[in-house]
């Protein structure tokens, strides 16, 4: 995936996750990131392209980042994603120096409660106008 743009896989049923995608697209004016719902055929293909040994079914259901360095989950995915946004957001990636166990503990608390706090969509909503080109195609 060295030549491919980073891909953010997200929980299409999660209202917060969908809002995060819209927020991210607005702060990525160079269109560096691509997106796909985590439980889509496009996501499965993207993961296999980055690391064919990754167990797709074992990936967490919140957020995953695929980039030239591999498959990233939990807080690492979020912080690595900020590197692709406009200033000042790349500075957030400095939090990668915090031990992963601490970062991921906080991430898991948030991820576990996101439906209760922000709600759930009955289905993955369509991308807003102008965003469709940023989403991976789900057909083969």
Summarize it.
The chain is globular, with a radius of gyration of 14 Å. The longest helix has 19 residues, at 100-118.
Your description of this structure?
The protein has helices at residues 15-26, 41-50, 74-82, 100-118, and strands at 7-10, 34-37, 63-67, 70-73. It is α+β, with helices and mostly antiparallel strands. The protein has a four-stranded mixed β-sheet, with helices on both faces. Strand 1, helix 1 and strand 2 (34-37) form a beta-alpha-beta unit. The longest helix has 19 residues, at 100-118.
Would you spell out the secondary-structure blueprint of this structure?
Blueprint lengths: L6 E4 L4 H12 L7 E4 L3 H10 L12 E5 L2 E4 H9 L17 H19 L22
Parallel strand pairs: 1-2
Antiparallel strand pairs: 1-3, 3-4
| Lateral arrangement of strands in the main beta sheet | 2-1-3-4
Q: Helix count?
A: 4
Whole-angstrom Rg? 14 Å
Which ranges are low-confidence, i.e. pLDDT below 50, for 5 or more consecutive residues? none
Mean pLDDT rating: 89
What overall geometry do the principal axes of the alpha carbons give? Answer: globular
Q: Note the beta-strand portion.
A: 5-15%
Quickly give the structural class: alpha+beta
Succession of helices and strands: EHEHEEHH
| Oligomeric grouping of the chains | single chain
Q: Characterize the largest beta sheet: strand count, sense, and whether it forms a barrel.
A: 4 strands, mixed
């Amino acid at each position: 995936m060295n030549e491919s743009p980073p891909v953010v896989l997200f929980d299409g049923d999660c209202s917060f996750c969908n809002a995060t995608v819209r927020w991210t697209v607005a702060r990525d004016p160079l269109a560096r990131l691509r997106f796909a719902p985590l439980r889509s055929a496009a996501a499965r293909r993207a993961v296999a392209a980055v690391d064919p040994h990754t167990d797709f079914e074992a990936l967490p259901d919140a957020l995953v980042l695929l980039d030239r360095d591999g498959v990233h989950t939990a807080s690492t995915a979020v912080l690595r994603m900020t590197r692709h946004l406009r200033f000042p957001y790349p500075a957030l990636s400095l939090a990668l120096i915090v031990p992963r166990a601490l970062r991921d503990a906080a991430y898991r608390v948030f991820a576990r409660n996101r439906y209760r706090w922000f709600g759930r969509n009955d289905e993955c909503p369509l991308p807003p106008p102008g965003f469709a080109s940023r989403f991976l195609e789900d057909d083969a």
